Amino acid sequence: MMKTFKQLALASTMLAFVGTAAIADEIKVGSVAGVTGPIAELVVPIVAGRQMAADQINAAGGLLNGDTMTMVLADSQCDPKAGVDAGTKVVNVEQVVAIVGASCSGATNGMVQSVTIPAGVVALSDSATAPSITDLDDNDLVFRVAASDAYQGAAIAQLAWDQGYRTLAMTYANDDYNAGLAGVFEAAFKGLGGTITSNQMHEPNKASYRSELSTLSGNGAEGLAIFAYYGGSGIAIMRNALEAGLFEKFLAADGMFDQSVIDQIGADVLRDNIMITQAASDYDDPSYVAFAGAFEATGHSPQAPYAAHGYDAAFLIALAIEKAGSTDRAAISAALREVAGPPGVVIRPGEWAKAKAAIAAGQDVNYEGAVGNNDFDGNGDVTGLFSVNVVGADGKWTGNLIR
Known about the structure:
This protein has 14 helices and 15 strands. With about 400 residues, the chain is of the alpha/beta class. The protein has two domains: about 25-145 and about 285-375, 3-Layer(aba) Sandwich (Rossmann fold), CATH 3.40.50.2300; about 150-270, Rossmann fold, CATH 3.40.50.2300. The longest helix is centred in the first third of the chain and has 23 residues, at about 1-25. The protein is elongated, with a radius of gyration of 23 Å.
C-alpha cells in the first residue's frame, strides 16, 4: 500500500511538472478583433494576417527558447463595451503578454483605457485609426501600425478637390472612428476652398435614413461624403439616397470598403459614381511582395484592408518579445520601439530566423513591414499610404495608390 502511495505521489509530481512545462512553452498574445459586428467580413483577413505571422514564427524556431506563439482570439464586436470585455478576458483570464488589436477605434479606446493601460500591457492596433488615440495618456503602451485618420481625412479631401468637387454634403456615424475622420475631412476640404453644404451625425443600424438625407440634400451639393461602416449604416444610406433620387455621387473611407457595397447597390449604379480610400501598401516593395506571396497561399487577398497591417502588428510584437528576452510585460513594451525602426539589421516579412539570429548576436533589428516602415513617433503613431478605389469593369473594387 505504501509503495502504491509513493508511486501515485511520484506520478502526480511528474504530471504537475509536465503541465508546468507545457504552459511555459506557450507564450500567449491577445488577438482582439471585431469578429462580429459591422465590419465582420473585413476582420477575417486581418485576423488571418496576424495568425500567419505567428505560424511563420513558430515554424522558424518560435519565440525565445523555442516557445510557441499562441494568438488568443477575443471578439471586441467593434464596440467600446465589448472591447473592454475582450481586453479583460485576454489580460486577466488568459494572461497574455501583449495584445494585437482591437480592430475598431471605439473598441480600442475602451479596451486600452479601462484594461490594458492600467495593467501595463502593450496594445498594438492594426486598424484603429481615430485621431483621438494619438492623445491618450497611455504610458507609451498604445501603438498603431495603421496611420491616424488625421492623414486619411486629409487624403480624401484632397482627392475630392482634385476630382473637381467644390460643394459636398456629409454624414457620419456616431462613433469614435467615423466622427474623428469626418472632422478631419471637413476641416481639410474647407481649407482647400471647398464648401460643406450640410453636415449631419447619424445613429447606426436604423431601418431608414430618408429623413436625414432629405435634410442633407437641400443645399445643392455635388455629392455626399459618407463616414460609416458598410454594415452599420453606410449601405442603407446609399440605397435610400439613390431610391429617393437625392444623391448619386459618393465618397467614403475604408469603413465602407467591402464587396458587399457593390453587390447590394449594383456595379452599374456605382461605376464612376463612388470613390473609397483605404490604407494600402507599396505593392512593388520587397517586403510587401514577401508578405503577399505567402498570404495568397493561405487563400486570402493580400490587398484586403488592413490584412498586411495585421501581419506586421503580430510580427512586431514577436520581435519585441524576442528583443526583451522574456515574457515580462514591461520589458516587451519597452522593446517595441527598438525593433520597429532604424538602426539595425533590416528584417522583412517571413525573416524570423534571420531576426532571431541577429537578436541572439546582440544586434539591433529594424523591421521593414508589408505596409512599409513602422517607425513610431512619440505618440506611437506611423504615417502611411492610401489608395483610391472605384468600381472596375469586372464589378469588383480596383484601386491605385494616392501619391
